[in-house]
Specification:
Elements lengths: L18 E4 L6 H6 L1 H22 L2 E4 L21
């Protein structure tokens, strides 16, 4: 596994890619509020750029999310078996 740190808002050309893991986004509402434009750019333009990279390379694509998608949990920190 080779990890490449890159600003996903900018297109990238990489040879020999067989998997693309898109994990570039703030994972906190505080981050969204502090950088709303950048957050939207990463989640839209960045996702498009990573999808295009995967498509050109014939690679699989994984887009990750955050537990914030499930709302505010009643328990902190959450265990692996927390059902929310």
């Amino acid at each position: 596994l080779t990890v490449i740190e890159h600003d996903v808002i900018e297109p990238i050309e990489v040879d020999g890619v067989d998997q693309v893991f898109h994990m570039a986004s703030p994972a906190s509402p505080v981050g969204y509020m502090r950088h709303p434009i950048e957050t939207h750019l990463v989640n839209s333009v960045g996702t498009l750029n990573m999808l295009r990279l995967a498509q050109r390379a014939g690679a699989s694509f994984l887009f990750t999310s955050t537990s914030e998608a499930y709302g505010n949990p009643a328990v902190h920190p959450q265990t692996e078996d927390y059902f929310g």
